[in-house]
Write a structure and sequence with these properties.
This protein is of the alpha/beta class and 174 residues long. It folds into two domains: 43 residues, no CATH class; 102 residues, Glutaredoxin (3-Layer(aba) Sandwich), CATH 3.40.30.10. 36% of the residues lie in helices and 21% in strands. It has five helices and eight strands. The protein has a five-stranded mixed sheet with strand order 7-6-4-5-8, with helices on both faces. The chain has a three-stranded antiparallel sheet with strand order 2-1-3. The protein is elongated. The N and C termini lie far apart (82 Å).
Length: 174
C-alpha cells in the first residue's frame, strides 16, 4: 500500500509538471511571418526565442461576484462616533470585505441632509445596500441584506478594503 501511494504521488507530480511551466516559442517562418507556438520550431529555423511561464500570469483583484454586487448594490454606511453599534457595523463590513461609502452625519451637513431625507431622523447607524435601508445595527438583518445583494460572506485572505469616505472635512475653528 505504501509503495502504491508513493507511485501515485510520483505519477501526479510528473503529470502536473507541464502545467507548472509552459514554454512558448517565437520565430519567423520562410515567408517572414511571425509564428508563436508551444511546439519547438523545425531545426532549420534560426533566431528562435523561447519563453517560460511559471504559474498563473493572471492578476487577481476583486472577484467577479464582489464586483457585480458592488456595481448593482452599492453599500453606504451612515455612522458617527456613536459607540458600540457603529463600531460593530464597521467591523462587520470589514470582516466581510465589503467596499462601502462611510458618511458621518455629525461632521457633514450633506450627509446629515441625506440621512434625514432617507429615514426621517438622524439616528445612526444606518446601512443602505442598493435601494434597501436598515435602521440600527442588528447582525442578522445586515448579514441577510448583504447576502441578498450577493456579497461574499468573508473577505479574501489578506484583503480588507478600507471604507470610501465621502464626508466633507470638518470646518476649521476660528
Amino acid at each position: 500500500m505504501k509503495a502504491g501511494f508513493i507511485l501515485m504521488a510520483a505519477w501526479l507530480a510528473a503529470a502536473s509538471t507541464p502545467l507548472a511551466a509552459a514554454q512558448l516559442y517565437q520565430w519567423k517562418d520562410a515567408q517572414g511571418h511571425m509564428v508563436y507556438s508551444d511546439q519547438p520550431p523545425p531545426p532549420s529555423v534560426r533566431n528562435v526565442e523561447q519563453k517560460a511561464f511559471k504559474g498563473s500570469v493572471i492578476e487577481v483583484g476583486e472577484s467577479y461576484v464582489a464586483r457585480t454586487a458592488r456595481e448593482k448594490f452599492p453599500v453606504t454606511l451612515y455612522a458617527s462616533a456613536c459607540g458600540a453599534p457603529c463600531d460593530q457595523a464597521r467591523q462587520l463590513l470589514g470582516e466581510r470585505g465589503i467596499p462601502f461609502s462611510n458618511k458621518d452625519p455629525q461632521s457633514s451637513p450633506e450627509a446629515q441632509a441625506e440621512l434625514q431625507k432617507l429615514t426621517g431622523r438622524l439616528s445612526v447607524p444606518v446601512l443602505v445596500v442598493g435601494s434597501d435601508k436598515i435602521d440600527g445595527f442588528e447582525t442578522g438583518q445586515w448579514q441577510s441584506a448583504l447576502d441578498r445583494a450577493g456579497y461574499p460572506k468573508s473577505a479574501p485572505p489578506g484583503r480588507k478594503p478600507a471604507p470610501q469616505t465621502n464626508t466633507a472635512p470638518a470646518p476649521a475653528a476660528p
